[in-house]
């Protein structure tokens, strides 16, 4: 890769280039830009974009990374030239835990699994899952009611993790997962997520035999045993069921052949647990935090939920019939995209935004920067859900689920799940975060607030509806 420090500067559009390779912050010797990224990644990335344009170079340790925060260039990487890229190194490091699920698989394995699984995620297939999500939300509503009566505050992030985990488990397994199984998942999944986050963020991948590694392996064994047990029981019973696992068990190719093996099912289930759990939880956490900062807007959303949902358990159609709540969810995804970057690695020579990239070049499509671009979004840092009800939005600069053939397969499910959980909570309760809550962000595998989101709970109406 060319050495940018020794070449001639030219400006092409919004990209400052040196000998065809974008300019960027110089960094610190062999560490590159790691010290600044460790200190405050998002602030450093925003400063770099302001200084060098929408496509710039970073040094991640010894490796150069092309950062892309411009819609047309992002579509080159994710859509029109997607065949010239594979998943980035960070995602490759997840294979120990996820196996060859949709998030990590490449080539024919990915294409085959995607074709088999796609029908299970069509909107028509999701209709029956709304009831499971609403049922999985009931323990959360009970805890919020108890908090409203006692005056005890709640940790919003923790509560959203619990409800999102229960919701994705219900959608995956239906009634096959009992309370004891859920406790296993709640106990064993977090350490795996933590270790995965640490590994993805590290520029090296040393797998030393430490207590944390032993804990990680024990957690993986426990989850594997649970998932394989449920798959065996479902196959033995012959009852495929209407949950996602049942749909995946019955999936066949166009000629009616094939289907996923038990090992492939395990990998996809683990991927769905990861993709459908923490991302939805962080979306809901940021949503309630933003609404707490805008009480007048929150009251309008609550009125909408009470009017449209009444005292019924919401359906998939109800989730699509909450326009103001839907706009708040979209605006939350814009400001705080859980999957805030999409890493890719060039599999051969390719050009992006006019920049020639040799094979092996690491590219980071930065969704956070893309969603905060002032050229695409008026008042880019403001929480303005009204932009989704009018004509101000810029769809080509909005990619919370990625883009192209590898767009998140569960995007419709995630939006329905968030709308049902948030709608049920807002119909009955007000979550008030004193002082506005944390204002900083932590950019790990997902985007999170930089401190606890602690809320006081009160009833949204004199007589909360119990189902």
Automatic annotation (TrEMBL):
<dbReference type="InterPro" id="IPR001128">
    <property type="entry name" value="Cyt_P450"/>
</dbReference>
<dbReference type="InterPro" id="IPR050121">
    <property type="entry name" value="Cytochrome_P450_monoxygenase"/>
</dbReference>
<protein>
    <submittedName>
        <fullName>Cytochrome P450</fullName>
    </submittedName>
</protein>
<dbReference type="InterPro" id="IPR036396">
    <property type="entry name" value="Cyt_P450_sf"/>
</dbReference>
<keyword id="KW-0560">Oxidoreductase</keyword>
<dbReference type="InterPro" id="IPR017972">
    <property type="entry name" value="Cyt_P450_CS"/>
</dbReference>
<comment type="similarity">
    <text>Belongs to the cytochrome P450 family.</text>
</comment>
<keyword id="KW-0479">Metal-binding</keyword>
<dbReference type="InterPro" id="IPR002401">
    <property type="entry name" value="Cyt_P450_E_grp-I"/>
</dbReference>
<dbReference type="Pfam" id="PF00067">
    <property type="entry name" value="p450"/>
</dbReference>
<keyword id="KW-0349">Heme</keyword>
<keyword id="KW-0503">Monooxygenase</keyword>
<keyword id="KW-0408">Iron</keyword>
């Amino acid at each position: 890769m060319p050495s940018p420090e020794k070449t001639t500067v030219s400006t092409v559009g919004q990209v400052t280039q040196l000998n065809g390779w974008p300019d960027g912050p110089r960094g610190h010797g062999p560490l590159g830009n790691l010290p600044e990224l460790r200190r405050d990644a998002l602030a450093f990335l925003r400063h770099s974009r302001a200084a060098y344009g929408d496509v710039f170079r970073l040094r991640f340790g010894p490796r150069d990374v092309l950062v892309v925060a411009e819609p047309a260039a992002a579509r080159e990487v994710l859509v029109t030239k997607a065949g010239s890229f594979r998943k980035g190194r960070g995602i490759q490091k997840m294979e120990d835990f996820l196996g060859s699920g949709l998030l990590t698989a490449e080539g024919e394995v990915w294409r085959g699994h995607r074709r088999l699984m796609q029908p299970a995620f069509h909107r028509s297939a999701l209709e029956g899952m709304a009831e499971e999500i609403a049922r999985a939300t009931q323990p959360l509503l009970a805890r919020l009611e108890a908090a409203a009566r006692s005056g005890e505050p709640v940790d919003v992030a923790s509560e959203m993790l619990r409800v999102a985990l229960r919701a994705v488990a219900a959608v995956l397994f239906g009634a096959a997962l009992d309370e004891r199984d859920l406790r296993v998942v709640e106990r064993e999944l977090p350490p795996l997520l933590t270790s995965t986050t640490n590994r993805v963020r590290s520029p090296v991948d040393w797998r030393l035999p430490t207590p944390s590694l032993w804990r990680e392996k024990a957690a993986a064994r426990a989850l594997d045993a649970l998932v394989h047990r449920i798959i065996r029981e479902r196959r033995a019973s012959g009852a495929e069921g209407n949950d996602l696992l049942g749909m995946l068990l019955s999936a066949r190719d166009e000629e009616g052949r094939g289907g996923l093996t038990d090992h492939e099912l395990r990998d996809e289930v683990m991927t769905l647990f990861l993709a459908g759990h923490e991302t939805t939880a962080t979306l809901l956490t940021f949503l309630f935090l933003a609404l707490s900062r805008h009480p007048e807007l929150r009251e309008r959303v609550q009125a909408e939920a009470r009017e449209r949902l009444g005292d019924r358990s919401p359906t998939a159609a109800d989730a699509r019939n909450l326009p103001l709540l839907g706009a708040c969810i979209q605006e939350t995804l814009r400001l705080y995209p859980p999957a805030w970057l999409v890493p890719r690695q060039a599999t051969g020579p390719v050009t992006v935004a006019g920049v020639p990239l040799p094979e092996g070049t690491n590219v980071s499509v930065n969704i956070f920067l893309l969603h905060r671009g002032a050229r695409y979004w008026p008042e880019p840092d403001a929480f303005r859900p009204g932009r989704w009800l009018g004509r101000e939005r810029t769809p080509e600069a909005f990619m919370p689920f990625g883009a192209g053939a590898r767009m998140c397969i569960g995007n419709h499910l995630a939006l329905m799940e968030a709308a049902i959980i948030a709608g049920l909570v807002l119909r009955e309760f007000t979550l008030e975060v004193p002082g506005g809550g944390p204002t900083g962000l932590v950019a790990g595998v997902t985007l999170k607030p930089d401190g606890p989101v602690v809320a006081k709970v009160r009833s949204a109406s004199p007589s909360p509806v119990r189902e």
